[in-house]
Specification:
It is a single chain. Helices cover 62% and strands 9% of the residues. The strands form five sheets. Strands 1, 2, 3, 4 and 6 form a five-stranded antiparallel sheet that branches. It has a four-stranded mixed sheet with strand order 5-10-9-7, covered by helices on one side. The chain is globular and about 100 Å long.
């Protein structure tokens, strides 16, 4: 398949000398669609790692053309099931006992079959309903062979200068391989599930399956069976009377909390892994694919959301740049104008989603997003995929969901929890930069005064006066910054009085008070100095006005 792709591209490259540019573009897009269709069919026939590769690549909008991504998005992680005799042998060899000794019932028909494993419903001898996830026999050997084949394909693709310059194939492959290897360890998946249980212990609108560790190995995972339907089964949700708006809000809150607060998220939230129970509770299953977010990245994501909330295109571009979501050599001026136009669709705290879902606007917006200089860094592939999937599910449940308003409480929580960290420091730094930005303006104003013409009189300030004025402005700016920091410390202490230990509030409050008092004392001292100078000048002036000769009576 890969050699066929390489040949097709080579032959297409030779044709560019004999056909028009418009015809070449049309033939290129047609070739993209043809190859993507062939890849999808081959992946479904072969199973194994090739399906995972297609899903992984389809999540990265910056790597492949739109025509290929449209076709790969149809790729489902669904293959023919393994014969039950092989599954029974695998379970018994892993657990060391016969199935009948552990399970009162064990369904021979799987409820789900994927490229790496399949799931069967069963009942323990204790009467508990469980789901048993079993690794497909021989899958390790298949993955080893597929992995070597993919590595050869990567080497071939890297020989193409345009492809090598456009994306880091090695980084993409490394992330993909590490994720797949994690999925081969069911004990790790069980630990992930328990970590999510602790993460959501305070919420009543989500349930995570419990793990039966006595019947779990690296190749067999026995967990609590959770009833429910796929979250996009709108007919059943309506029949149960589930409030779809509330459900969408809960789902968005759950994932915003995972990403912004915990930094640990479910990386594969497709409808088959997000179930809904009759009472509206979300049952989140399958924790083989998870992702973690570093604190500095989480901070920049909060900054990005705040910029969107404030409709600040420049702030959004700065956060996107720090997150490495923008390609190199991007025209920031053009991109800023495009973001500003997009932000105009925000009404209050919400996006006006009518322009996305109505008529031809959806296709126009999609073309706009593909035309923008976005990229997904290698370490954020699954984050982008998870966010896009969750947003699509929420949009299907409630097209008018208050996206930004739902995320705002979590942004505030991150800011409050990081007062001594980078979010607070960034806020202070931005305040300094804003105030110090006054200085260039002051210089320009002085330059403008130099050039001002009033009749025949040309006003020109001396260099010493200009320097003195700028020095004064510098000192005033520093005092303003210190006063702002003091005020922020006092307000923060007041807001946190009931949130954290009182000692923290005392320290912040005392610090803020001392800073503000020091500025007041500085101001009084400067006033006294000015007063002393004025008195001295008056005495000097009085002395000079006295007559040099005195008459005597």
């Amino acid at each position: 398949m890969i050699f066929k792709f390489v040949w097709d591209f080579w032959w297409l490259g030779k044709q560019k000398y004999f056909i028009s540019g418009r015809r070449l573009e049309a033939k290129t897009k047609a070739l993209y669609r043809k190859q993507a269709t062939y890849f999808t069919k081959t992946a479904m026939d072969m199973g194994g790692l090739i399906i995972k590769l297609g899903q992984h690549v389809s999540a990265q909008v910056d790597i492949l053309p739109k025509e290929i991504l449209d076709e790969l998005s149809k790729l489902q992680d669904s293959v023919d099931s393994v014969d039950f005799a092989e599954i029974q042998q695998k379970v018994e060899s892993e657990l060391g006992v016969s199935i009948s000794e552990i399970f009162a019932e064990f369904s021979t028909t799987p409820i789900a079959a994927a490229s790496l494993g399949q799931v069967h419903r069963a009942t323990l001898r204790t009467g508990e309903e469980v789901a048993v996830k079993v690794m497909r026999p021989g899958v390790e050997d298949i993955i080893a062979i597929d992995s070597k084949s993919i590595q050869i394909a990567v080497r071939l693709l890297k020989l193409q200068p345009k492809i090598a310059a456009f994306m880091d194939l090695d980084a993409v492959y490394d992330e993909f391989y590490d994720t797949v290897m994690d999925e081969l360890d069911y004990q790790k998946e069980g630990r992930n599930a328990e970590e999510f249980q602790l993460q959501f212990i305070h919420r009543e609108d989500i349930v995570v399956p419990g793990i039966h560790w006595s019947y779990t190995t690296s190749k067999v995972l026995t967990m609590e069976f959770l009833e429910g339907v796929k979250i996009n089964d709108f007919a059943q949700l309506d029949a149960w009377g589930v409030d779809r708006t509330t459900l969408a809000k809960s789902l968005l809150e759950i994932f915003v909390e995972q990403i912004l607060v915990e930094g640990f998220f479910h990386a594969d939230p497709h409808p088959g892994n997000v179930l809904v129970q009759p009472d509206g509770t979300i049952a989140l299953i399958d924790y083989g694919m998870v992702g973690r977010i570093a604190d500095d990245m989480k901070t920049q994501m909060v900054a990005l959301l705040m910029a969107v909330y404030l409709k600040d295109a420049h702030g959004a571009i700065d956060a996107l740049t720090r997150l490495r979501f923008l390609r190199r050599n991007v025209d920031l001026e053009v991109f800023s104008r495009n973001l500003t136009l997009l932000f105009e669709q925000i009404n209050g705290d919400t996006f006006d989603l009518n322009f996305v879902t109505s008529g031809d606007n959806a296709e126009e917006l999609r073309d706009f997003l593909y035309s923008q200089p976005f990229q997904l860094p290698a370490n954020t592939t699954f984050l982008g995929k998870a966010m896009a999937t969750v947003y699509g599910l929420c949009l299907g449940l409630d097209p008018e969901l208050d996206l930004i308003g739902t995320a705002k409480p979590y942004i505030q929580e991150v800011v409050l929890n990081d007062l001594r960290g980078s979010v607070f420091s960034t806020f202070v730094d931005e305040g300094k930069n804003l105030l110090k930005g006054i200085l260039p303006t002051t210089k320009k104003f002085i330059s403008a005064v130099d050039k001002m013409d009033s009749g025949d009189l040309r006003v020109k300030l001396s260099g010493s006066f200009e320097k003195k004025l700028i020095d004064t402005q510098n000192k005033n700016t520093q005092r303003i910054i210190a006063t702002i920091i003091g005020a922020v410390s006092l307000l923060t202490a007041a807001n946190l009085w009931n949130e954290v230990n009182h000692i923290v509030s005392y320290v912040l409050g005392t610090l803020g008070l001392l800073i503000m008092l020091s500025q007041l004392k500085t101001r009084e001292r400067l006033r006294d100095v000015r007063h002393a100078r004025q008195m001295k000048a008056m005495r000097e002036h009085s002395r000079l006005e006295k007559p040099k000769f005195h008459s005597h009576k």
